[in-house]
Model the fold of this input.
Amino acid sequence: MPPLDEVTPPEVLRYRFATPADAESIAALHADSWSRHYRGAYPDAYLDQDAPEDRRVVWRERFRAAPEDQFTVVAELRDDLAGFAHICLDADPKWGAIVDNLHVRYNLKRQGVGRALMAESAAVLVERRPASALYLWVLQQNVAAQAFYAAVGGTVVEEELAKHIPGGATARVYRVAWSDPRLLLRSGV
Done:
């Protein structure tokens, strides 16, 4: 079997809704992604010591509560988690649903996984809330993520100081928005 870090076309990936059985692997990917990309914005001590357990608690609780206004889409490659997107519907009266999390395994970045997760999530959003817009927050220091969101049609619409940074830090963030999430569907990205 080839290693997971080889180039993987998006059509090889499978997409599905996450289940409680996915909580541990989602939490691990979430903490790893933060550790790699949020240094300098989040305290190192938090990323190194607290983030893994904090993310486990968060994801266990999300699945335990199972709110109807949220969903998580996972991408799998040969039954291993390749990435995930977590969407909260009706998060903001003006900006619509929020992409609360989008993370792709580090060794699978730039292979279409994030693009496909955005498209899969947009398809669910359009089905459940046809008139909803979509947005997310991205750290000002995360230039690579900003370039990705621009490449899939996102527009920076405002900047502010993040309200809730784990570990008690502060950081500047951009709100990136899609007034029409249908633009993210596979034919549009």
Observations:
- The longest helix spans residues 44-65.
- The two ends are 30 Å apart (CA to CA).
- Strands lie at 14-17, 70-77, 80-92, 96-104, 134-139, 155-161, 172-178.
- The helical segments are 23-37, 44-65, 113-128, 143-151.
